[in-house]
Amino acid sequence: MSTPIRQLLVLITQAVETLEAASQTSGTTLPDLHTPFTPSSEAFRANAEAAEAARIISAAALQLEAIVTPPLVSLYRTVAGHFRSAALRICLESNVAEILREAGPEGLHVKDIAAKNGQDPERLARFMRYLATHHVFREISPNVFGHTRISSMLDTHKSSAEIFADPEHKHDGTMGLAALAAHQYSPASLDETFKASAYAWETLSDPATRGSGDPAKGKPKDIVSISPWKEPKQLYPPEAVLNAYDWDRLSPGSLVVDVGGGVGTASLILAAKFPELKFLVQDLESAIEQGKKASRKVWNEQIPTAISSGQVTLQAHDFFTPQPQTGAAVYFIKNVLHDWSDEYCVKILSQLSAAAAPASTLLLLECLLPLATNDPSASEEGLQEAPAPLLANYGGTNDMGYMLDFAMFLMFNSQERTRMQFVNLLERSGWEFVAVHRRPGDSTSVQCIEAKKAARTLAQIVPTAQLAVLARNLPQSKSLHNVDGGLKVQHGKKRNDIIVKGAG
Ligand SMILES: C[S@@+](CC[C@H](N)C(=O)[O-])C[C@H]1O[C@@H](n2cnc3c(N)ncnc32)[C@H](O)[C@@H]1O
Coiled-coil regions in this chain (predicted)? Predict the structure, then answer.
């Protein structure tokens, strides 16, 4: 039988052939590591076969590396992971990316880089060399550094002179990727995750904070103070919202309530594409009305007729309070639940189930974390898992969701969730899981979970003592919940067995 090393090699060989053939067919070129990033260098990935082949090559290469690298080296690389972040931040903050772009493909001697950004050349070279060892920058000749495809993503494409003259506005009007890195690192505002991660163990070893879902515990800033946010387009392409659900299914005039809609990132896209649907975008008063990025201002700029025509209404509403819009066709929540721990999510979702009609649909657009092993229920629903012997979730090449999860833990004492965790949240808040709408090649960062109002209002009005009696009349596969009493009543394995869980 062939060894895992051989199996991985076969996967790589086959995938390289597929990748080359697919890019030839689509007339695209495969990326060159030493050429700065351009959006067109990613065009090959639009072909689904090529994208999958690239994913397999990358996952297999990382797994091969894990097998053949001395474990002490691999372990230490993880132990010292923060060194790489620190080195990157030094380069990001000192505008190395812009300086190198201006130098062109020949690169620049570190003394000349340092002359521009005021850093010590000896030190800068140490950090850049470390990063170059991991293909972030490249040492073209001794002490002469240039960009790689990876490091070039830190480039704001502004002139370095302009940035040195006005560092505060470095990221204004840029593509947003460097800003996203700065979001993680910038000491001026959002370098919290980097520093907070150093205290993760202190938080978890303290009984007062270990199991707490309180947003005030284990997070450095008030959640509202950094909202409303504007999504980086590269992370959440507009198609993610359009593809998330079969919006055509809704009859004309149907109302979609965008709960915690922010500036309306999702509704702006949907309202433009589906003029026959109506939208109610809800957020806190401050997000709707105040500041440069107030929701109302953004709508008036982007689709001026949407509000005046009555297609879109903006409403100040706190989602922890009773939902004023009852019986909407769709309650839609995007990238909100990951800001909150379970107990808070249950409160938000319960307000929605109380307002929903039996025909209402709940759509959650959130990051859906895969397991690091096969997940039978998810694969039945079309979750694409990697071929053996790769990790089912494609391993390290697909770890963006877990990074987001860690960031949510550090920033908001909240989390990203797996399918099981979403089903559990829904069960606890008056909803019944219907489906995950997966499409081939979906990223984990925005997936759509559909739910409907749970048919458990009966259980809520029936006295707790009678639940078990009622449960006997349930179809074998169903369970009955009593939310207020914290009870779950279900059939046991044997006929006529009734299990009552929880206190009543
Ligand atoms: C991560 S943003 C997501 C925004 C939007 N759904 C999107 O995908 O672009 C979270 C949003 O929740 C809003 N929010 C926070 N607390 C809220 C509350 N108690 N009631 C209503 N909205 C709230 C914030 O103002 C922010 O716009």
Answer: none
